[in-house]
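ugh ok fine here u go
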Amino acid sequence: MIHDYFSGWTTEVPLKTFPKGVNSISGYAQGNTINLTWIYIDYPSGTTILGFKIYEVIKFITLPAMPPITITIYELKFTLSNSTFNKSFSPVSYGSHVYLVKTYNSGGDSFDNINLTVYVLKTPTNLTATPLSSNSIRLN
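structure:
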């Protein structure tokens, strides 16, 4: 309850319960497709989640404060149901991608975050293998 003693104004403020985050996240790239999987165990039970949100880090900004402050900017990629524990998507550009899976409910998104970096590598082409010994080769 909020009460303003000067004006006598009073209002009720509902208590929001935010969900806990995912327990773990893993992923890999296959070609230009990213495959993410996560585990969510609801303990303590009683906090119902509506689903999961997958975010991708699009920028890190470091502010010249003392000490420096890093701000991470995320872009929402997908919103999924509470019974979905994996997501594959493509095409994805080559390079490193950082993802975050959050739970959400009517109170908002979870606060505890686990970032996962997935590397999408371009498959080498036109390689020539030259035997050097019984256990080594040279790739050109």
